[in-house]
Amino acid sequence: MDASAFLDLPAERLTAHQAPALLVERALVVEGNGGRVRLKMHDGLDCLQLTEACAQAMAVIMGLRLRGDGHAVQASGMLVGAKSMVLSRPARAGEVVEVSATQTAELGPLQLYQVRATTGDEELLAGELKVARTGGPA
After folding, report:
1. Which domain does 100 fall in, by range?
2. Is 124 exposed, middle or buried (0-12, 13-18, 19+ CB in 10 A)?
């Protein structure tokens, strides 16, 4: 799988999420079972919004992995659980926020990810998210 050729694709082409609800600006890195994305500029993000941004980051990374595996489909799925989400502080207006997500387990369509939202070297949010993959190749 080499998804690096698809890093220039807009996030909208990698996931079923669409503007204005799409929080991810672009993917920065995809490697192994994870990757990192940059969020769009914002007016501040609370815990719920950062959790949604992490879920969207997982979708964009899954979309990159699908492209790297030769499938021309968007990633789609459903967030089914959040566990141990710890918010250090909300994101402030205009801060550049990056989200990293690493898949730690998979059972059929269910996937578990470790996620982190950071600004610079400061961690804003960390925890685990579970998603149920829908559509696309199995």
Report:
1. 4-134
2. buried
